[in-house]
Amino acid sequence: MRALVWHGKEDIRCDTVTDPEIEGERDVIVKVTSCAICGSDLHLFHNFIPAMLPGDVMGHETMGEVVETGRGLNGKLKKGDRVVVPFTIVCGECDQCKRGYFSVCQRSNRKKHLADKVFGHTTAGLFGYTHLTGGYPGGQAEYLRVPFADSTVQKVPEGIPDEKLLFLSDIFPTGWQAAVQADIQPTDTVAIWGCGPVGQMTIRSAVLLGAEQVIAIDHLPERLDMAEAGGAITINFKEENVVERLNELTGGEGPEKCIDCIGMESHVTPAMPDTVYDRAKQILLAESDRPHVLREMIYVCRPGGLISIPGVYGGLADKIPMGAAMNKGLTFRMGQTHVQRWTADLLRRIEEDQIDPSFVITHEVPLDQGPEMYRTFRDKQDSCIKVVLKP
Amino acid sequence: MTNLSSLTNFSNITRSEGDPKVIHSGPSSRGVPDSLARGLGWFSLGLGLTELLAPGRITRALGMEGKEALVRVYGAREIGSGILSLSVDKKLGLWSRVAGDGLDIATVMTALRPDNPKRDNAVIALALLLGITAIDLIDAQATTMRHSRSAGRRRTYRDRSGFPRGVDASRGAARDFKTPPDLRHAPALAAVSPRTSAA
C-alpha cells in the first residue's frame, strides 16, 4: 500500500509499504477513505517531538471502512462498518478509561517502558506519533490497523460525507474538550490563542457552549477571517498589543478563560523578544518548547481564572511565570484529548446541524501529494488551514 | 528494497510483525534547496570547527600569520550559521552564510598583497570562496522563495462560519451540555452573589 512516511526532519515521503496485518484479537483493519494533516504533525515534521524513527507512518486523523476483523470483537464491529478512528488508542477497561481519561489509558501503549521512563508513568498509545506513545503506524495511508478497535473507534452512519465526520478523530473533540474543561459560563470572556484548525474548533465550541464573548488571537488574515466568521472578536498580534486589547475588551479585568491552541511552536517575532530568546534556545537544544503563549495567558488571565491547554507541548519549557500563576490562583487544565469521551455527543450535534466541521477544510488532495502539502501547510502558503488527503 | 537508508531498515527492529515496513521510497517533502541547505549546514560546522581548533594551519597556508584570533571568531560564526542552516530557520542560516562569505572574501583579499609568499594559495582560496558564495546566494534565494508565504493564492474565509443555522442562532445552542463534575470550575458570579442575582 501507499503511506506517508517520516524519514527525518522535514522529510516526509509517499512510500510503498507492506500492508498492516491483524495482530490482536480486538484489532481491525480499516480501509482509509479520508485522512488529514494535523497541526501536531508539524511538530513531528520539525522533529521537535522526541523518539520518531525513519520509517514511521504518519497520521492520526483518519476514517474509513472496516475490511478485516480480529476474532475477539464479539460482533461489536464487522466488515463494512463505517468508522472514524480517534487518535487515542484505548483499552476501555483500565481504571483511567473507566474514568473517561482515555488519553492516559494504562494498557494501550505497547512501549510503556519508554513512556514510564520519560513521563514517569505511561500514557495512551497514539496513532502516527512518537515511539513514546507506542510508535503505532498512522492513518495517512491506504490501510490502518486499529488495536483495541471495539473501544477505540466511533461507528458513524452512512449518508453523511466524510468531510463532516473526519474531524471527530481529533480536532473537533480537541476544540470541544478545550472549551468544556474551561467550564464556560454565560458571563465568561474566552480568549483563544491560535486560529489554526484546533483554534477554529475551539472558537465554535465556545460559541455553542454560550460564552458571552469569544476573542481569537492570530496574525494570519485568512485565519482571522475564519475566526470572525465563527463569531469571534479578533486580535491581530502583529498590529495590536494583545494584553492591552484584551484588557480593553474585558473592562480592564482580563478574560476569565484563556485557551492555548498553539503549544510548543509559538510564532517568533522581534516585537516579542521572549520568542526570539526561546527560538535561540530551541536551536541550541537548550529548550524544546517555545512557551510565549503560556506566559502571555498567565499574565493576562483574570485572577481566579482558568487556563486550558489543548496545544501540544513536547518537553521542557523555560521562564514560566509561576509566581504570577500561583498568586493569581489560576487553574490549569491540559492534556491530550480524551476523544472517546466526546465523540458520540459531537456526532449527534453534527447530525442535528448544530455544526458542520467541514468549514475548516481548505485543501483536499490525493495522498501522494501529501509530502508537498506538509510544506504548504507549514509555510502557510495558498491560505492553507486544513488539508484532507484521499488515499 | 530500493532507495532506503540503512537507518530506515534498522528501525524495523522496533516494529511488530504486522506493522507496515517501507518497500520503496517516494519523493521527499524536502526539495533540492532544502537538501542543499543541509549540506551547506554540515559544511559550515566542519569548516567552523577547523577554524576554531586549528587556526594556525589556515593562517600559515594563506600567509596570514598573526590573524589566528580572527580565524577563531570566524569559526564560531561559521558554527552558528551551520546550526541555523540545519534548523527549521534555514533561510536565516543561509543568509548568514552569505554575509559571512562577504567577510571571508574581504579578509582573504588582504592576503593578495604582492609580498605574500603564499599569494597563490590566497588566490585559490579566493576562487573557492567566490564559488561557495555563488552557491550560498543561489540556495538562499531558492529557499526563501520556496518557503515564502506569498507563494500561492490569497483567499478569504469570511463565509465559513461552520454553523448551518448561522452564528447568532448557534450561540448557546449546546447549553444542554452539562459539564462533567471533574471539569467544573468557579461558578458564574450570578450563582454566588445575591446582590448580582437580585439585579
From TrEMBL, chain A:
InterPro entries: ADH-like_C, ADH-like_N, GroES-like_sf, NAD(P)-bd_dom_sf. Its cofactor is Zn(2+). One of its GO terms (molecular function) is metal ion binding. This is Glutathione-dependent formaldehyde dehydrogenase. Residues 25-150 form the Alcohol dehydrogenase-like N-terminal domain. Transmembrane segments: none annotated. Keywords: Metal-binding, Zinc. CDD domains: FDH_like_1. It comes from Methylobacterium nonmethylotrophicum. Residues 197-269 form the Alcohol dehydrogenase-like C-terminal domain. The keyword Zinc applies.
UniProtKB/TrEMBL annotation, chain B:
Residues 148-157 have a biased composition (Basic residues). Residues 173-185 have a biased composition (Basic and acidic residues). Residues 148-199 are annotated as: Disordered. It comes from the Bacteria. This is Cyclase dehydrase.
